[in-house]
Each structure stands twice: as C-alpha cells, then as structure tokens.
Amino acid sequence: MEQTLSQALAMAEQDRALxxxxxxxxxxxxxxxxxxxxxxxxxxxQLSHISLGIMEVEVTGRRLIAPPEFLVWVPxxxxxxxxxxxxxxxxxxxxxxxxxxxxxxxxxxxxxTPLLKALLDDFVARRVSHMSxxxxxxxxxxxxxxxxxxxxxxxYLPWSSDRLLGTLLASLxxxxxxxxxxxxxxxxxxxxxxxxxRRCHRDLGMSFGQWRTRLRMVQALSWxxxxxxxxxxxxxxxxxxxxxxxxxxxxxQGCSPQRYRQQLGIHD
Length: 268
Hints:
- By secondary structure, the protein is an alpha+beta fold.
- 44% of the residues lie in helices and 20% in strands.
- It is built from eleven helices and ten strands.
- A hairpin with a 2-residue loop joins strand 4 and strand 5.
C-alpha cells in the first residue's frame, strides 16, 4: 500500500499545480498491470477511460466495473480508489465546474456512443491536454453535452440484495456456463419467471439474458490474459460452439477474442 499511497499523494500534488480545466484537461498514461491506486480525490470532476480490459473503481463503498465502451464519472472531491490487473492506456479527463453541472451528481458509468468515441479519439490522437483553440473548446462542450444525455449505469455488472434474484446471480457467478432459462430458474426458486424478470429490470436495469452475457464477458476478458485456448473459453462459458462465443464477444467488445488478445500483446 505504501507505493499506491505515494502515487495518490503525487497525483494530488500534480492536481494542485494544474491550471483549472478550460473547460477540459486531458491526461494520458500507460498504467502497468497489477496497479492499485489508494483512495484519493480531485478538485474537479473526472472522466476515466481505458483502451482494453476492465477498470475497477471503488467510490464510497461501491465497486464500479467498466470495460472500454464506458467512461467512469466521479464528481469533484469524491474519494475513490482504482485497480487494473493488466497494462493499459488510460485517459483521465478533468471537467470544469461549469460543465460538471451538466453531468450526474453521483459517480456512475456513461456509455460511449460512436459520436462520443470519435470526439474523444480525436483529442487522444492529437494529444490535446488543455483546450488551446476555440474549436477545441467547442469540441469539449459538445463532448459533455452529449455525455449529459448518454445512457448511465451504476455498474457494468450490477448486483441485487433481493433474496430470490441474489440467489440466482450468485449461482450464475459460480457457474457462468449454466444455460438454464429464466423459466427453469423460476421453477427451482419456487416463483414465476415474470417475478424474476421484473426484479431483474428493477434491481439490475437490464434483462436476465443481458446480465448473464455481461458476466460471461467479464470472465472471458480475464481468461484472455492467460493461455487458455479460445475454444475452451467458449465451452466453459456455456456456448455450444466456438463461433457462437466469438460472435458474442465481437458484438459486445467490437473485435474478436483473437484480436483482443493480440492487442494485449499475447499470441496463441
């Protein structure tokens, strides 16, 4: 923890030396795998984005899990810690007080649309830090304007304390290859599929099938960092064929498992 605490203190010192965002300030880093950053805060709202894998941020006791298609939003002065288990490219975006007023008042995940991704990718490609031209200011304002109406979630893989639904989710987490339908789970839990479906939308904000797909995606991203063959991954996650697993991964991640692994610098 000594090293992570010193990193957090150094970041706080760097923040104090920065000019305020005008209206954004972008900082770029390559973070080494196994990096844990102790609890810290920033004087401005912060959006965080990673290039690959999964980023974990803990804010006020809530654990946010975010893949690359989401930005993590943390309001100003809100203590948070972070962890990543794989080397990745990281972009931190500090947001001025005026623009932060347009974003949620609590930490959450904000989904990147194609337009939002294009706006952010342009800043990253040009390595813009402070906004130095009127066009950069307009681009920053458009980025936040579109983020203000983007889909927000409290977590990529939310949980439920509901007795019935919590039991189902825990069972799936222990066995992600379990392909039982919601009707079959309802029969085992002595309830109805309509009740379970309603509680999924109430507590998770998504359907049972969507949650199970996300669970499998998180597990696949973890396995892809190791030597497990892709065919075995699909089998362990309950897919009837390798092509079905690859199609799911492509749909959720935007690239094939093989391509994702290559981007991590791992070769079969």
